[in-house]
Amino acid sequence: MNIPADAPFVSRPAPTFVAGALALGVHVLFVLLLVFGVSWQTRHPAPVMVDLWESLPAVAPPIAPPSKPRPEPVNPPEPAQAVPAPRPVVKEPPPIKPPDIALEKKKAEAERLKKQQAMQQAEEKTRADAARKARENQLAEQKKRELLRQMDEEDLTRRMAEEEAASAARRAQLAEARAAASKHQTEVASVVGQHRDLISAKVRGNTRLPVNLKGNPEVRCLVKLLPTGEVMSVRVTQSSGNVAYDEAVMRAIEKSSPLPLPADREARAAFVPELSFVHRPKE
């Protein structure tokens, strides 16, 4: 806007008034904030953390509107320096109380007792289960032993009955065998006796007694025989005291060869391989 040179001079308010008003408003605003902050902190605030500043940031001076050109420059008065606002008083947060050691110990002790009780309950349950299993195993073992004992008793009774029956059968067989053996021995003895008589009769028939023989002298001879009854040799084992009679008996035995022997092998064993022959002239 161009002002003519001949226009009358119009006084206008200096721009320093606006700057001073703005600075005063800023200071009032800071005072209000400070008062509000202090009154709010007195209401038992919770512990907070704040940053402490060494000084408040500098407030930029308000920007003055551009001045209109004037016909004559007028040096404006120096603006009043802004008074720094007082530093806000910030209360330090109350110190954090250390945790109650007794309470922590009590809690820890309660937890330890709880864990210990849980462990004891678990151990008691384990012992109870082990005792129950042991009782069950013991009962099962007793039942098993009882069953085995009954089986053993039944088996023992059965075996005793079988052994008794077998023993009775053996005794019967032994009795039969003894009876048969006795009968056979009797038969063998009878056969042996019969053949001894036959041999004695045959030898007596071939004996030529001496003329001067007196009494009934006995002579014993050992005769070696073959299974066929043939005489291999004759030898006097006990003399009658009469040499002629002894020799006559020996000649009669040799002359009676082969001697009559039994067909039964067991009976023949009484004569073979050696026969003890006794001879008396009057028998």
Explain the overall architecture.
With 283 residues, the protein is mainly α. Among the domains are: 13-42 and 81-91, no CATH class; 196-279, Fusion Protein Consisting Of Minor Coat Protein, Glycine Rich Linker, Tola, And A His Tag, Chain: A, Domain 2, CATH 3.30.1150. It is 52% helix and 7% strand. It contains four helices and three strands; from the N terminus they run ααββααβ. The protein has helices at 16-41, 101-205, 243-255, 265-268; strands spanning 219-225, 231-238, 274-279. The chain has a three-stranded antiparallel sheet with strand order 2-1-3, with helices on one face. α2 (101-205) crosses α3. The longest helix is centred in the middle third of the chain and has 105 residues, at 101-205. It starts with 15 loop residues before the first helix and ends with a strand. The mean pLDDT is 79.
